[in-house]
Every structure is written in C-alpha cells, then in structure tokens.
Amino acid sequence: MSKLKTNIEVDAVITWVNGNDKYWQEKINTYSETKIDFSSKKHQKRYNSIGEIDIAIKSIIKFAPFFKNIYLVTDNQKPKAFESLKSLSKNRGINLQIIDHKIIFSGHEEYLPCFNSCSIGSMLFNIPNLAEHFVIFNDDTFIMSNVAVNDFFIDGQPIIRGQWQKFNEQRKLRKFYLKFKSFLGMPDKKGYSFKKLQQNSAKLANTERYIRRFHTPVCLRKSTLENFFKENENLLEENIKHRFRNENQFIISSLSEHLEIKKKTFHYRNNAQLTYFRNYKNLFITKLKLKWFEQNKNKIFITFQSLDMADDKSLNYILNWIDKQLTFN
Q1: Banded pLDDT at 266 (limits 50, 70, 90)
Q2: How many whole angstroms separate alpha carbon 46 and alpha carbon 49?
Q3: pTM (2 decimals)?
Q4: Tell me: the pLDDT tens digits for 116-133?
Q5: Predicted pLDDT of residue 1
Q6: Rg of the Cα trace of the chain?
Q7: Which residue intervals define the domain Stealth protein CR2 conserved region in the entry (predicted)?
Q8: What is the pLDDT of residue 124?
Q9: How would you write the chain as a 3-class SS string?
Q10: What integer pLDDT is reported at residue 236 of this predicted model?
C-alpha cells in the first residue's frame, strides 16, 4: 500500500465583501438596474456581516496550519482586524495576503467593478504564485476541528463532497412540472439558482450526472483549470463579463470538480462532515447541535448562514462558543 502524499503545498482562498461599506454600497447601486435598499431586512440578510471573515481566517490558522498562504480576495476592502490576523498567521507560519480584484482581472479590467461571485470565482486561479492545490472557502463556513491535508486532497487528488443527482431534463417529474408551468404561462423563477449553475458547470465537463455540492470548502487543482481554459478561452471570457449573476453562467469550483470527475482523478465523499445552521429561533436546538458537533469527531466544518439575523441571546451564545473554540494556547 503506497504512502499518502501529505506534504503537498496547499493554499486557502476566501472571497469576501464588506456589505456594510457605504462606498461599496454606492458603487453597486451605480451599476445595478434595481437599486438596493440596504436598510431592508431582505438585503440586510444578504449583505450584513458581523465579523464572519475574522472567524473564517482564525479557524484556518488554528485548525489547519498546514496551509502556506491564505489569500483574501476583495474589492479594495480590508477587514478591520486584518493586521492582527496577519500577525497571528505569521506566528503560525502562514502568509495572510489581500488580493484585489484588479489583480485577478488583469487583462480583463473592462469587466470591473464586479459584484458577481460566479465571475469573480472564475478568476481565482489567476492569483499570483497560487499553489497547484488550493481550497476555496466561503466566509460563513469555518473549520472547527483539527484537519490534515488528506481531509482535502488524497495523493494530490481533490476530495469532492456532495450528492450525485440527475440533470433536471433527466428527471421525468421535473420535465412534466416545467411543461405544465410553461403551458400556464408561468416563468421558471429559479433560473438563477445555485443548483442550475452547478448543472451548467457539469455539462461543460460532459459528465452523465452531476454532484450537487454540500456547503463545504472546495478543493481544486490550478492546472486542471489552466488546461481547460487554454482550449476554451472564449468560455472564460463569456463567464466573467457579467457584473451580476446570469442564469447561463458556470461556477468555477463546480466546473473544476466535474473536470476531475471526467478524468477520474478525484475522491468522493457523500458525508459533508458539516454542521449547518440557517435557523436560530430555538436556542435549545442550537446548543444541542453545537454539543453534538463537539462530540462527533467526524464533523470538521460548521456553516452559520445569515448569523447576523440571530436574536441577541442566540448570537451571544454562538459567538462565545466560537471564541472558546478559537482560543490559541
């Protein structure tokens, strides 16, 4: 039995926007056809932040110190605690660096400013000196247990976490439902769904099915994307030209995963190893889930979606729990 390759160099990449930044709010409203009311509850849920980026960075520093670099990709923004985070990461042998959109969009500046995660994500492999193996993190998903390289890559090949599913057009009930809606003159309002964008990505790789990804970090190899876009440069250009999300776009991380699936150079996990929060109404349930996370050694990731929408009591409990987890000895 061959020994696992665990000494490969791995970088972490986090895309982040400070939705509370007034200058950024003015900028997006300059380009958006529909002006955003940032005081509305709907848009507070999407754009507000309460320091999740600090938690995301700290969690990598503490529980995954094998990462060589943490690249924070932003649009001329910097977290308030950046300098202290940079010092903390340096003490653990990790380089924390801000990468501006202008850097990754070099040669394609006409598409800036960009407010579209699909477009921004498509350019992440252009980060200067990015390692061959890198992991993309959402700023609301945290590592909360000790991990190793082989939780992300096995023998240099990426781990893919998700569930195999058929494409929409392969599902008979779904096809009938869409035809019925069309007959009634009802539009398909889910044209911009994350699920559809994942399917768009898989189809570019010509896979027979697709993996609907869990809300977990995504493992990629830079050469997989570079080789694909050498032959499909027009696809990249078409994807990044949209300042706002378009239903015909693909997601770079899903594309990369399905290119690896096509080549059979991946390792599949149908266990997310994730505890997922999206509702904070019941503090008892919240406490129970956090306690179960502590007890279940298989769990390594936690997602707190729209944490700023939690009531004060639940929010304080969660933040105190996180602080305890991220205490450095």
Answers
A1: very high
A2: 9
A3: 0.90
A4: 999 999 999 999 999 999
A5: 42
A6: 20
A7: 46-154
A8: 98
A9: CCCCCCCCCEEEEEECCCCCCHHHHHHHHHHCCCCCCCCCHHHHHHHCCCCHHHHHHHHHHHHCCCCCEEEEEECCCCCCCHHHHHHHHHHCCCEEEEEEHHHHCCCCHHHCCCCCHHHHHHCHHHCCCCCCEEEEECCCEEECCCCCHHHCEECCEEEEEEEEECCHHHCHHHHHHHHHHHHCCCCCCCCCCHHHHHHHHHHHCCCCCEEEECCCCEEEEHHHHHHHHHHCHHHHHHHHCCCCCCCCCCCHHHHHHHHHHHHCCCEEECCCCEEEECCCCCHHHHHHHHHHHHHCCCCCEEEECCHHHCCHHHHHHHHHHHHHHCCCC
A10: 96
In the predicted structure, residue 180 carries a pLDDT above the cut 80? no
Residue type, 29: N
Is 230 exposed, middle or buried (CB count within 10 Å of its CB: 0-12, 13-18, 19+)?
Answer: exposed
Q: Name which CATH class applies to 10-325.
A: alpha beta
Sign of the Cα torsion 188, 189, 192, 194 reads: negative
- Residues in Cβ contact with 142 at an 8 Å cutoff, skipping those fewer than 6 apart: 55, 56, 59, 301, 302, 303, 304, 322
Q: What would the mean pLDDT of 82-100 be, rounded to a whole number? A: 97
Any idea where the domains of the chain sit in the sequence? 10-325
The sheet that has 274-277: what strands, in order across it? 141-143, 301-304, 274-277
pLDDT in tens, 299-310: 999 999 988 889
